[in-house]
């Protein structure tokens, strides 16, 4: 094969990313007798990340799309493959200036796929729903029903430093973010 497969971003209707991925994979599977490496459309991904959320007071790991409304495809760009992708239900267009699809740069795709050294996350990232300066109420522990102001956030530990008024004096306490409720 003369041309090399590159990664391209495809804009889709938001919420239709997995449907578009399945439709492209189904269309590729219909191509007769080629091994995956010989096919012009080789791989389709919807980049996701696991994050920890609080639901009903419990920590739950959920999978979130990193780029809502986008699907990534590794393919050889030609008129046929461009036509195939553009005619998949749910696809809006290729990402790129004008009418020409623009391949993703190697450093972009390596970061997205987790091949870049700075993206080595083994555990889901804690998503703390508070911001510095926000007024919160403590819902658990020895400071239950105290109100305070968020001073610092420690996402790596899942902790929040809150300043509460204790006996008329401002006191900083470090609490698990699951023990807090925002206003």
Number of helices: 3
The CATH first-level class of the largest domain comes to: Alpha Beta
List SSEs in N-to-C order.
EHEEEEHEHEEEEEE
Identify the CATH architecture of the largest domain. Answer: 2-Layer Sandwich
What is the count of β-strands? 12
The CATH homologous superfamily name of the largest domain equals NusG, N-terminal domain
Average of pLDDT: 84
What spatial form do the alpha-carbon principal axes imply? elongated
How large a portion of the residues is in β-strands, by DSSP E?
35-45%
Q: Name the helicity range.
A: 10-25%
Can you put this structure into words, describing what you see?
With 183 residues, the protein is α+β, with helices and mostly antiparallel strands. It has two domains: 6-125, 2-Layer Sandwich (Alpha-Beta Plaits); 128-182, SH3 type barrels, CATH 2.30.30.30. It is 16% helix and 39% strand. It has three helices and twelve strands. The protein has helices at residues 17-29, 79-86, 106-113, and strands spanning 6-12, 41-45, 48-55, 58-65, 70-75, 91-94, 125-126, 135-138, 147-154, 159-166, 169-176, 180-182. The protein is elongated, with a radius of gyration of 23 Å. The model is unreliable at 116-122 (pLDDT under 50).
